[in-house]
Specification:
By secondary structure, the chain is of the alpha/beta class. 21% of the residues lie in helices and 25% in strands. The chain has a domain of 179 residues. Strands 1, 2, 3, 7, 8, 9, 10 and 19 form an 8-stranded mixed sheet that branches. A hairpin with a 5-residue loop joins strand 9 and strand 10. It starts with a strand and ends in a 7-residue tail after the last helix. About 1% of the residues have low confidence.
Length: 511
């Protein structure tokens, strides 16, 4: 059942066993997983079924670090940011969950094996197809397409694409028709109110932009409003805990991470384009999945060289030809490639004398991992929104060491192509110490309610429960301890399904 919160009488009290705050990828996945349990579930969504500017405006805030657009990086209506996501999916690597002595504040309290069964289920929820991310045989189309053999440091891995699934549309009927779920639209949780000791949530204060006010009184609360809003909501819940609920150690909002995106950090020249499988260059149907081949770095390379991860895509740009005089600097074609690289390709290529096409030039794009930084954080601004709540203040920080890590990884890619013999890499990323602006980012908000076994190191435990609050859980990428280097949605859904399993054991029929 869908209920417009703007029509709920002032002072109404809604009783429920489970309250889920936020109807995005995490919230809808959890609600669907709980739709057949013998318990009343309330799903509370700030927006309606369609985009509305007044609701979206609640995301506006203040950026005091690397410039960051808060109001356009998320969508605030039923389905959340799945209403505009691109569908890129891939599980995290096992090393992403490990404590790495060269990455401060790394180490999840769970490992990849704990999420493996949930990744398979998440693949189904995201309508992706077969789980073939690391299966070269499955994507080779009978041996026709082989990954490039770039040695022991650089590996080909595959993303799979969701259609992309618009959760708010695809799963609307599942949520609307579930007999145990009431979904309150246009309803904003304004504060999560605990008991006097701040050890248990007692009620949720809910308001609408039209001025209505009512309460939800749940036995269990799951906060699923996104990697920025989760932190903001806990910080706003400060009637009892003045620093914010779950923030006794000052960790809520800290360790904000993104995936810096760099366009054309390098160019790749490959002498024989027929060696490049279609899946490297665009979305490609294979073995029942829509895939894209990318370059990543092996765990052995990352450990040996003490690096963070980077993922690189590439795409065909134009031919580099032998019938162009590369010494003629006044032509655009000649400026595309330095004479030294042209001569090097001529001297090493087995195809150089067979065609005027010397090589194919490929442009690249990349996303890279950030090391967790406690000074990169979400805070409350003194400015207020239309509900009278403090807006978000973000201080996103990019470190010189993160940039140096990216540069080293690109150099490793260049070495791998050089050793392969059929390609060369020209590095375009400027070698500088400062990194005080972002060329781009993935709109991936992570780390602000990080997971840790020790409450001195994180906000939630291995089951996503807030340390010290017995019935409050957090879902979404805010619980990520480290960011990995791949898009977060598949992991968000996998963690949400795992959390749903944990919560529903308390409400199993007949128990």
């Amino acid at each position: 059942m869908f209920i417009d919160g703007r029509n709920v009488p002032d002072g109404t009290i809604v009783e429920a066993e489970v309250a889920i705050i936020g109807a995005g990828a995490a919230g809808i996945s959890i609600a669907r997983a709980l739709r057949n349990i013998d318990a009343r579930v309330v799903l509370i969504e700030s927006g309606g079924l369609d985009f509305e500017p007044d609701t979206q405006e609640l995301y506006e805030g203040e950026s005091v670090g690397v410039p960051y657009a808060l109001d356009t990086s998320r969508l605030r209506y039923f389905g959340g940011s799945t209403n505009h996501w691109g569908g890129w999916c891939r599980p995290f690597e096992p090393i992403d969950f490990e404590q790495r002595d060269w990455v401060p504040h790394s180490g999840w309290p769970i490992n990849r094996a704990d999420l493996d069964p949930y990744y398979v289920r998440a693949n189904e929820v995201c309508q992706i197809g077969p789980f073939i991310y690391d299966d070269p045989a499955a994507v080779s189309e009978g041996g026709q397409y082989q990954p490039l053999d770039l040695g022991k440091e650089v590996m080909t891995r595959w993303f799979e694409y969701s259609p992309p699934t618009r959760f708010g549309w695809t799963y609307r009927q599942d949520i609307e028709k579930a007999s145990n779920i009431k979904t309150y639209l246009n309803s904003n949780v304004m504060e999560i109110l605990p008991n006097a000791e701040a050890t248990k949530v007692e009620r949720l204060r809910v308001g609408t932009l039209t001025g209505r006010r009512f309460e939800v009184r749940p036995q269990t609360v799951i906060l699923a409003t996104g990697g920025i809003e989760n932190a903001r909501m806990l910080l706003l819940s400060n009637s009892i805990e003045k620093a914010g609920l779950g923030n006794g150690r000052g960790l809520v909002g800290r360790y904000f991470m993104e995936h810096p995106h760099i366009e054309r950090p390098c160019e790749i020249m490959i002498t024989d384009p027929s060696l490049v499988a279609p899946y490297y260059q665009t979305y490609t149907q294979s073995a029942g999945a829509n895939i894209r081949g990318v370059f990543m770095f092996t765990a052995d390379y990352l450990r040996k060289n003490r690096r963070l991860g980077t993922v690189m895509t590439f795409y065909k740009q134009k031919e580099v030809r032998t019938d162009i005089d590369v010494e003629e600097k006044d032509t655009e074609a000649a400026r595309d490639i330095e004479p030294g690289i042209a001569q090097l390709i001529r001297s090493t290529s087995s195809k150089a004398n067979e065609s005027p096409v010397l090589a194919m030039r490929y442009g690249t794009g990349c996303a890279t991992e950030q090391a967790p930084n406690p000074d990169s954080r979400i805070m409350l601004s003194t400015e207020k929104d239309a509900l009278g709540l403090n807006r978000t203040k973000i201080d996103w920080r990019l470190s010189p060491s993160d940039r140096a890590n990216l540069r080293h990884n690109i150099e490793a890619l260049a070495r791998a192509f050089g050793a392969w013999g059929e390609g060369r890499v020209r590095i375009r990323l400027p070698d500088r110490d400062k990194w005080d602006e972002a060329e781009g980012w993935g709109n991936h908000h992570m780390g602000t309610t990080r997971m840790a076994a020790d409450p001195r190191k994180g906000v939630v435990d291995a089951n996503c429960k807030v340390h010290g609050v017995e019935n409050l859980y957090v879902a979404g990428s805010s619980v990520f301890t480290t960011s990995a280097t791949v898009n977060p949605t598949l992991t968000i859904v996998a963690l949400a399904l795992r959390l749903a399993d944990h919560v529903q054991t308390r409400f199993t029929r007949g128990v």
